[in-house]
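Model the whole thing, not chain by chain.
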Amino acid sequence: MAYSEKVLDHYKNPRNVGSFDPNDENVGTGLVGAPECGDVMKLQLKINDDGIIEDAKFKTFGCGSAIASSSYATELVKGKTIDEAFAIQNKKIVEELSLPPVKIHCSVLAEGAIKAAVEDWKRRKEAKARENSVPGKQ
Amino acid sequence: MVKTPIYMDNHATTPVDPRVLEAMLPYFTDVFGNAASRNHVFGHEAEAAVEEMRGTIGAAIGADPKNVIFTSGATESDNMAIKGVAEFYKERGNHIITQVTEHKAVLDTCKELERRGYEVTYLPVDRHGLIDLDDLRKAIKPETILISVMMANNEIGTIQPVKEIGALAKEKGVLFHSDATQAVGKLPVHVDELGIDLLSMSAHKIYGPKGVGALYVRGRNPRVRLAPLFHGGGHERGMRSGTLNVTGIVGFGKALQIAVDEMESESARVKKLRDKLETTLRDRLDEVFVNGHPTLRLAGNLNMSFAYVEGESLLMGLREIALSSGSACTSATLEPSYVLKAIGVSDDLAHTSLRFGLGRFNTEEEVDYAADRVVEEVNRLREMSPLYEMAKSGVDLKTMAWKRD
């Protein structure tokens, strides 16, 4: 199949490949997809106390469009607030990368990865807050 | 420096050998007659060429030439054999036996016959892609009219025990069809020795032109009858009407002649290249797995899974090398190869497979280049793969709870 120039560019020069320490309290990790479906995306966001996404990294097992979708997603979220990131829709990725209909699921997965990473960060923040607000915890 | 792009997809199709093209050329312009024109020299010459090639092809498979019926290719041959037998012998029985890794030309034809009320048994295969002869024996019943088992598989190259199947079919009085598209010209084929009653062949897999093939239909012991698919001028003894593709037939005959003449040296050469490719990739990469039979396999075939790297993305990184993948990321179903599934390759590993099909025009230099590039891309993509990272840190990917979309 023919890939768009942008998909090829992200595939050849993926932005922000790598991992953050998932135990870092400022890091939210989203892991979506399944190996038997041929797509797994891991997206990690480093979020500061003001809820701004300072940095993002990804690793993806999947076709070129899946790699490009997650690479583009890391660019898209940097500098955004968690609410803005949470509101990103897959359509934005489809348009930017000119994904054909059979590859739309790649953008859906990337959108899911962003949401999962934000939720993971929120969950961990809330857990931490609960820990701190319970005096004399055991 | 090796010239790119490199073609390593010879199971899909092959280029026409220049010797074949040379043999074909006069039949486009000078000897262009209709082989059915009986009343002038143009027709006679075309007919003579067709009959010469029928002789060549018959000799190449140990068959009486008059039992070679020209078709448009193996898909038509498979349809003609299976539907033709099913229709002609429907009074005798309605049961057909085939196996799960057949080409779609066989499987989809069988599915169509099921819709028409026939019963089809799809035999399973073992992890190397071989059917079990005991399974076959048990599947045969009084209503069985046909067994259809391919000679060699197009994805994993596994070579079926055709001779044993032929003997069993004869013992039980059942007709035996074999799709030999990937095998003729590469393996010795003798229809009498192998007990084959119907044999499908194609020219474009053996350095001949596309759009031409043949079906061998046994003429005696037993005489096989077929209901034709095409009706018309009664060509090919009424079994396949339609003006003969004289140019294509000349190319097919010449291609098969060359393949048979050079089979011994060429299969040794191709096998050496394939083995070098396989050994190099195994030595330089961890967690790679060969799909198919370790020894009963076509010489040019190497189907390999590269764990943690999705096949289509790997192909994208190897754009200057023409290969296929068992991943089906582009298909709407997202289902990977049914052949790999049938031999028990898990879906996650099936998504990571590549098929190398080496052939007549591949060189050692090309194989070395391909091996280097595959190693490079697999390593690059593994660095990008969350699965590789998780596996290396001791996470058991099989027991993980995955979020499926």
